[in-house]
Known about the structure:
mainly alpha, 2 domains, 2% strand
Amino acid sequence: MDWGPFLCxxxxxxxxxxxxxxxxxxxxxxxxxxxxxxxxxxxxxVKAFHIVFVASWFAxxxxxxxxxxxxADVAPGSHAERERLLLMARRLYRFGGVLMVVALLLGLWxxxxxxxxxxxxxxxxxxxxxxxxxxxxxxxxxxxxxxERGVNQHGGxxxxxxxxxxxxxxxxxxxxxxxxxxxx
Length: 184
């Protein structure tokens, strides 16, 4: 699908509007971020599901390193406990991957379908944090593979610190989306 004409029409629609009095105004001030004309029911549903899936994906990012803490602290002779924790971590990693893909697709839909944040510096910063979150998730995969091979190189304390990185990443992302500190 060629997105060019579609995106041009979205941007053009955002730059002009007809106020209640009927006179046409042009410019970015015509349609603000809180203009209800832009907030169709479809937009609000996609936005709501995007928030739900992002929060769910981050819940997996919060809990997966916590499982690593428990795995790192398992006594050497506790084979059953280790296998149970590995099974939980594998399942959570797979489920988190599904959540991540759906969250990313819904985010792309908001961006390309409704032009949310198009050309705004805060969106570029958010996209950079999304890339960091994906890299963090891939880092979890690598750590899980090390546990599966029995070659863990870190203690429980290291995983506790690693676990907090996801919280900071989530907080920074939410602040960018809500506050929009670099809004033009």
